[in-house]
Amino acid sequence: MESESPQPRTDGTAVSTKVIERVAALEGVDPTDLPVLVDAIDTDALDSIFAPLRGGQSTERGRIKFTYCGYEIVVHGDEAVDVVSEVASQEAGECGTASSSSP
User: Where is each Halobacterial output domain found (predicted)?
Assistant: First the structure.
């Protein structure tokens, strides 16, 4: 299973943008060549959930997991984005469903 290490967001870039950039890098394509992320998850909600709290602190709790373009995406409370190859049943270009959990 191919994986990229989680990377905390430190530059103010929206989590949804980081997801698209990471998948595009793994696929070797321009981010604009990927299907729209909103077909897999509500990007406004995703960005809102992981927006920094007052004082710039992150929530550091919980995570959201969803599939996008054949990859399992896990966004952690510390704003780290983990991209893992999805199982063979998920075809490239398909976007799946979201789920969330808290510790």
Answer: 13-83
